[in-house]
Amino acid sequence: MSPLWRNQIQVFLAPGEVNVVGLSAGIKPMQLFKQTRTWTPAAGPAQWQAPLQVLEELIGEIRQDTGMAAIKRGSECTFTLSNHFVRYGIVAPQSSLADPDELLAYTNFQMRETYGERVGDWALSLSLWDPCHGALCAAVPLNLLSDLEAFTLRHDIRLRQTEPYLAAALDHWSSELPDKRLWFVLIEPGRFCLVLLMNDGWRCVRNQRIVQPLEEELLSALEQEAIISGQRESIEQVYVYAPAYMDWRLADDGGWQFIHLPSGKQSAPACFPQAVETDHSGRSHA
């Protein structure tokens, strides 16, 4: 059966937030339901266990409210994973790789240079590989992927895709983002993810916990990465998606101009986190 004729379930998972959206089958899908729950997450090595438990509860509530029709057998499920659950690395260009096996080995080596033996517990995936520009590698814990697969089997639905929040956001707004030089920042409670692309090549990625005030940490990171890149424009435009901090704005200062998404016709996907009020330290108020 074509995916067009299956109901779709979109899930966003974060340490303190779960969003579940259901879409009807067809060329022009309609939203069937949406459930969101947020909480203050507890620290721990497997931060996805609490979100998965909440997801189970939300699915139960949806079925109680709407009946089985909203989550049909064989519905397809896409998981978008918070950057809290993902680690990133840039795989440097290499023109001598002969086949996919060599590329995988090269990627594994480069990630181990950064993260050490932990890479053995992760599943690695690459953006589109270009031997002249390299690629971005995303690493997700194997245990998390196993738990997601078990969830879909338990509920008799199909696992369509699991994607990092960063990749989903960049893909979604690709038509609105510049292609020659792009600063992009994705901000979540307690973490921001910063990337720089130049002429289709990945120049930096930084997935950083927020410890100090967000303004200080973000501006510091931008300045550092601009120096490392070896190129700094007089005015640098930075595209920002920060739904947890929609009432918070950085002043256009020091040559940095911030453009908050969504800024055009393309609204955020329904499963993405939505706006909440925050103070200027970057702490959210549920």
How is the topology of this model organized?
Elements: E1 8-14, E2 17-23, E3 31-38, H1 49-66, E4 76-81, E5 87-91, H2 100-115, E6 122-126, E7 135-141, H3 142-154, E8 158-164, H4 165-172, E9 181-188, E10 191-198, E11 201-209, H5 214-229, E12 236-241, E13 256-260
Describe the structure.
This protein is an alpha/beta fold and 286 residues long. The chain folds into three domains: 3-82 and 140-165, Nucleotidyltransferase, domain 5 (2-Layer Sandwich); 85-139; 173-260, 2-Layer Sandwich (Nucleotidyltransferase, domain 5), CATH 3.30.420.40. It is 25% helix and 31% strand. It has a five-stranded mixed beta sheet. A hairpin with a 2-residue loop joins strand 9 (181-188) and strand 10. The longest helix is centred in the N-terminal third of the chain and has 18 residues, at 49-66. Residues 277-286 have low confidence and may be disordered.
- Got a strand count? 13
Indicate the overall shape: globular
Instruction: Please indicate the percent range of residues in DSSP E strands (runs of 2 or more).
Output: 25-35%
> Which structural class do you get from the secondary structure elements?
alpha/beta
Q: What is the top-level CATH class of the largest domain?
A: Alpha Beta
CATH topology of the largest domain: Nucleotidyltransferase, domain 5
- How much helix, percentage-wise, in residues? 10-25%
Query: Average pLDDT, to the nearest integer?
Result: 88
Rg of Cα set:
20 Å
Number of helices: 5
In whole angstroms, how far apart are the ends?
A: 41 Å
Q: Name the CATH superfamily classification of the largest domain.
A: ATPase, nucleotide binding domain
Estimate nothing, just give the exact number of structural domains: 3
User: What about the largest sheet?
Assistant: 5 strands, mixed
CATH architecture of the largest domain: 2-Layer Sandwich
Parts with pLDDT < 50 across at least 5 consecutive residues: 277-286
String of helices and strands: EEEHEEHEEHEHEEEHEE
Strand order of the largest sheet: 3-2-1-4-8
